[in-house]
Write a structure and sequence with these properties.
The chain is an alpha/beta fold. It is 39% helix and 16% strand. About 4% of the residues have low confidence.
């Protein structure tokens, strides 16, 4: 996808632009192309799932408004929703339902455990699956033909997180000697915490993990876990959390007056969500995280973010942006394949070269032989003035880090 096609799909250009290089006259026109997407639309991760869904809906709307898939006679895209509830068994059932309802390509979900299950179903049915969010390395390590992932892997996340935490210490001239690693006991939390420890060791152990604490992300009380972390007297807390538990951790830290130089997600999906900021207000300020983020320096992406927030009355975030990009990838593959045939779509996906998309990356969006996005990477950011502000990489920076952070008494 070139820049003008990207502008067409993000709605920045005022006129539709006809795709070039496709022998449209010889192709059968498709009236409607069904894309199946599962997300946790209900349950403890519903806010996140709804953000993912909104990102995909906006992408579908804008692609259709720009003329649909030109190589298929202007076929429109239709998003079929599935609610996986963040449960693998539900994700399997919903994926099978979407296939029965005619989805020719699948996307989503949010959690790695659902991605593992749903892509297995897609492989059995020989339906292409573009994983929008789901970091566990194992998702693409099973030799599957039909699975592609645009999100970063847990290995990349672990490596980049340690690099950014070390850089934060250096640029602020603030030593980080000790940390507590606190994480969920779901698939992502277990794998990601191990990757953090692995890459900490590879980096020469720039700081020490003095306590490691795991917990069930569906719990309603984390007071004991926070008290245990406080007793270790770390310089920083490194959480790997979901949304509701992230809120619990921060509230409990405030309640117990557990002071650290900073809360630094490694990464912690819950600690940068819109609802985290909304629920905690000033207590969310100065939370740091190492995670993927969208390119806030790109004027077209800025315009899209404004449109999203106006349309949905919600902050544009990682989940919406990655989900939007997943639809861009699918639309680009459909355009180049000029077909809804699974094999032709797989061939097109394997040759993807998206130079214009929403996320901060190290290069064009393209897949390796396993189906991973080889240029996916992280940003490092901080909540300042009620919004996520990118700190690193420097070329994308919107603010300077506040570290060490002010005490709770200055925020609550």
């Amino acid at each position: 996808m070139n820049r003008r096609t990207f502008l067409k799909y993000t709605g920045v250009l005022g006129v539709a632009i006809t795709a070039q290089g496709f022998p449209a006259k010889s192709l059968r026109a498709e009236q409607e192309i069904k894309i199946g997407a599962t997300h946790p639309l209900t349950g403890p991760m519903a806010d996140i799932g709804q953000s993912c869904r909104r990102g995909m809906l906006l992408a579908v709307e804008k692609i259709n408004a720009a003329g649909g898939i030109k190589s298929l006679g202007g076929a429109s895209l239709k998003l079929l929703d599935g609610d996986d509830q963040a449960k693998p068994e539900v994700g399997i059932a919903e994926t099978e339902r979407l296939i029965r309802e005619g989805a020719v390509v699948l996307t989503g979900p949010f959690t790695s455990q659902v991605a593992m299950a749903a892509t297995q179903v897609a492989e059995q049915h020989q339906i292409p699956y573009v994983v929008s969010i789901g970091a566990a390395d194992q998702i693409t390590e099973r030799g599957f033909k039909y699975t592609f992932r645009i999100f970063v892997t847990t290995d990349t996340i672990g490596r980049d997180a340690i690099r950014y935490i070390t850089k934060l210490s250096e640029v602020t001239n603030t030593p980080i000697k000790t940390a507590v690693l606190i994480h969920t006991n779901d698939l992502f939390g277990k794998i990601q915490s191990e990757k953090v420890l692995e890459h900490l060791k590879k980096a020469g152990s720039p700081f020490e993990i003095v306590e490691r604490i795991s917990y069930d992300y569906t719990t309603k009380d984390l007071s004991a876990e926070v008290a245990k972390a406080k007793a270790a007297k770390p310089d920083v807390l490194l959480p790997i959390s979901r949304l509701q538990d992230a809120i619990l951790i921060t509230r409990e830290m405030f309640k117990q007056r557990f002071e650290v130089k900073g809360i630094i997600g490694a990464p912690s999906p819950g600690h940068y969500e819109t609802e985290y900021i909304t629920a905690l207000g000033k207590l969310a300020e100065y939370t740091l995280d190492a995670a993927p983020w969208y390119n806030t320096k790109d004027p077209e992406v800025q315009a899209l973010a404004v449109e999203f927030e106006k349309k949905f009355n919600k902050l544009f975030d990682l989940n919406a942006a990655y989900s939007y990009d997943a639809i861009l990838v699918i639309a680009d593959a459909l355009e180049r394949a000029a077909s809804t045939s699974a094999d032709k779509l797989v061939e097109a996906l394997r040759t993807t070269q998206l130079t214009h998309h929403l996320m901060i990356t190290r290069g064009p969006l393209q897949f390796n032989e396993k189906g991973d996005n080889i240029h996916a990477g992280l940003a490092f950011f901080q909540i300042q003035e009620g919004r996520v502000k990118v700190l690193f990489p420097e070329e994308y920076a919107e603010a300077r880090p506040v570290f060490p952070v002010p005490p709770w008494s200055a925020r609550g």
